[in-house]
Amino acid sequence: MQDKIKYFLKQSWLLIAASFFFGLLIAVTNASLKERIDYNLNVYKYNKAAKVVLPEADNFEEVAESVSVKTNSGKELTTSVKKAVDSDGNALGWAFICEGKGFADKVQLLVIVDNDFERMIGYGVLYSIETVKYGDEIRFPEFMNQFKGAPAGGFQLSKTGDKTIIDSEIVAITGATITSQAVVDMFNAFIPQVKEQMQEKGLI
Questions:
Q1: Is the pLDDT confidence value at 121 over 80?
Q2: Cα 196 from Cα 57, distance rounded (Å)
Q3: 1: containing domain
């Protein structure tokens, strides 16, 4: 038995060494490129979501970095604000990422508001693992459309109401009050604080 093992090692040492070397090379390459891969993935997801919310936009130009926002939980987060412009360079609105705690995990949304921070244009979901058929319905038009054209901020969640009326009252997803409230809380925390800092910077 030992002779067979020695024979196997003699015959296959090069293959074993090559497998180890290339495996190590792949691991090192992945580790060194992880930051770039993650960045490209996030940019892709951002641009894809932004184009769905505001298809008229030709580009999203970063204008304010590290805008600080204090969430309802007391946690301080930072977000960057981008200006949505059309092909002629005309400003269409402002886009930034909101983040908060949902039912299962964090929820990350891309929100776009108009030039004056007065009205919501809409939002897209960048990250969410909320329960399928419940909290995951924050991705569905029935819930999302309540925010399109609604006053930016000052939202209140209701368990009943008319979802087709565009105002500050948002009807919760049935069976997903926690996730619905998380979305409302995120917008109520982020929008006024981002707006205030944009005003301080003289951008609006």
A1: yes
A2: 24
A3: 1-53
